[in-house]
Amino acid sequence: MKTTFITTMPDKSGAFLKASRIIAKYNANITRVNYNKAVDIHTLFIEVEADESILSQISQKLSSVGYLKDNNKKVKVILVEFKLQDKPGAVFPVLKILNKYKINISYISSQENETEYQYFKMGLLIDDPDAVKKILDEISTICDVRFLEYDSSEKVLDNTIFYIDFANEMRELLSLSQQETNEFTVNSNLIMQMLDERNESPQKTFNYIREFAKSIVKYKGNEFCPRITTRQITERVRLHNIEPPCGSNTYILEDSDELLFIDSGFAYYQSEMLSLLRGMFADFDTKKKSLYITHPDMDHCGLFSIFDKIFVNKTSYENFVLEARGLADYREQNIKCAPYSKLSRIIMQYKSPDLKKLIIIDTIERNTDEYLSKISNFTFEDMDFEVFEGCGGHVQGEMVYICQNKQIIFTGDILVNIKGFTKEQAEFNVIAPYLMTSVDMDPKKAAITRNKIIEQINNKNYLVCPGHGEIFYK
Predict the structure, then answer these.
(1) Structure confidence by residue, pLDDT tens digits, 207-237
(2) DSSP 8-state code for residue 436
(3) Which listed CATH number (3.30.70.260, 3.40.50.720, 3.40.50.150, 3.30.230.10) goes with 2-64?
């Protein structure tokens, strides 16, 4: 009985010898061989004559050494490009990975181009898309990988290409390091997996992540265009509100000697904010400045480095201690919020505060049975503030600052003014709720806390300063 084995072999000496020895071991006879390197560098046809049982054993042995592939799998060549530093040995790590997975190279081309990099084009013989995903994921941790040709009909392979292309896109857009790119890709995948369980389209999820990153970059530099309002709120204090397209409001209470900030937006816009503040206050760099935060989310904590004193409650301090130790902070301990928070940390270039600058303001023990519990007081000029800590509905450490004698309240994100968003803010502020499913750690508690605030100030003509959106009267 004769049968023809269509073998796939590495393009190296001894490959056919190895197959011949297997066949000879079973005393079978090779009756025909065909190989044409110009047509296909890896495929070798071997016709063998032997009993059916012997042919079956030969088939199993050839399969065990990788010479016979699953006939249901399509064998194809994908053309990829590796961006490597132009230095001796740069290609070795890539070749080692390919060798580790026994991937054959059908084509290779590279030459110097008067830059510090060389672009190695390689044709890789592919018959197992699942293996390719592992291989290219591993290679992408050491260098940029770009696909030049691939068969999009293969779903798994197409997904592999998608992730690498997505990673390259984000790396270029955000100027990420290799490690940051890997972390970004992993957390994007976690968000996709979470939303996939809610029957959300993966394509939609990644489009939202793209829009998140692109929106942040879009308003950098000269495109940074916050809405700024200023009003005299007491005889001695002026209130400034800076509302960027992305990130929290930054409030500034100004008297003749000092600037008191409440929240400070995203770290990504620090240079833009400093330029803006120096234009608003001629003596900004020398003026006394302090910061109070409403809660420890990074979109409210972007300018830590410019303050000598940062006032926080005990809960927020504990949150920042976790960050300083490299542990998950309170928001990242929530499985729904963690991937988005980690993406934000990368995109925003957020840095945890210097713990030595933090001043804990708690003077009254928080009543954990209350949705809003008074924990402190402070005074700025003729304004007497009471500080209340929430129950963690939005995030642990949330605070509200109420000045009853001047009827002003700073609510943080316990209360936001959606109707008061600019067009840019409205477009940006739909992203986080989708990617986290909710911006609140506990939506029910958040709703109750919000209602408690509204009950306390309703119909009293309070000036409400929300975490996002324009100031309004209630």
Answers:
(1) 999 999 999 999 999 999 999 999 999 999 9
(2) H
(3) 3.30.70.260
